[in-house]
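Write out this protein's structure.
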Amino acid sequence: MTAAPTPFVSRNPADPADIVTQAAAVGAPAVAAAVERARAAQPGWLGGGAAARSSALSAIAAAVETAAGELAHLAVREVGKPLAEARAEVARTAAIWRYYAQAPYEPTGAVHESAAGPGLLLTRRRPHGVAGLITPWNFPLAIPAWKAAPALAAGNTVVLKPAPEATACALRLAELVRQALPEDVFTVVPGGSEEGEALLSTADVLSFTGSTAVGTAVVRTATARGVPVQAEMGGLNAAIVLPDADIERAAGHIAAAIAGYAGQKCTATSRVIAVGAALGPLREALAEALRTLAVGDPADPATVCGPLIGERARDRYAKALEGLSPFAAGTAPDGPGWYAAPAVVEKIPHDHHLLREEVFGPLAVLLPADDLADAVRITNSVPYGLVTSVHTAGLDAVLHGLDHLDTGMVRVNAPSTGVDFHLPFGGAKASGHGPREQGRAALEFYTASRTYTLTPP
């Protein structure tokens, strides 16, 4: 007798008594069946032609824009995203679908002369089949979009397994997406680890965003099956501040990157590295910026730092702060939500866990550096390498030092947070595995290159 699917509950992080949705995990057999239906639908989706795929993705962008207000408020309620960020995420989600709506018209290969004699050599990129997507809760609309849109544009079908905490967002997005697509081209399978493992075991190409521990297991499983895989995982990102920087502006950027969305971004700043004489002024400015940063109800448009996603996340944050005395701190509102006060600490041992492990909360460490080379060494000293922000008034010294940073992205005079969806996104070391996401890099990942040799009969 088959066991009943395990139910799960998605709660409002600002008011845990508010149940956003209750759903049952679909179970592994249902995931396998969804993949088979998607595989059967894939030839028709590809064979319908570029115009049909382009039109469908454009329609999805329009549908997201029409439902923008509803989607933003759903993200606020289900995952505690501050309203201003939720609105920006919805706008970016629509822009992603519209950007990839042009991709079906892009060249899928090239023609080359043969090395000797008559004939031609052709290269052509073709879709893999069914794209299995496993997405996190912190960007419940944008991350599914930036994975699904290029996969669909290239002619794949999609099966999406969202994080349980973002089930309502994923299901509502799926309603909008499926209105523009043929049957079984895009499917959402709610659930947890069982459903994720089933998708890993059946899809033809896999894209994952989440923790390093789970991502490592995803890569291992996919590699054993011999299917293409990309995994975007953790970060322990640094902000380097040189003495010639506009210190107050840099402090504002860094405070927002530490505490924005309660630090629940893989691109959040976890380490602040002050070079030379920048240390004293930056320490003072950062304390003031964090003190005045708006912490509270995510439905308030002024809020920058809302609640953590759940009780376990708040407990993990409290444990990370044990024995430490922050020199800079915000405030945590009283009330039922899973709130935590953003903080910056200093003078911790070089082997402290905050210099090795991602907390995924509004917490950072201030570290001194002798010069730019020392700052680069400190930045590179952790297992991760996603993004580094560098703050300076002059670019000469930075341009000489940036190539030595072992991170996938570098942002100058800007917060470490922020993504340009038309450019490659991804990190080095434990932050990522496989080809980059977004931009044209995503189209290459979701297709395989073939070489054809044509010779006259």
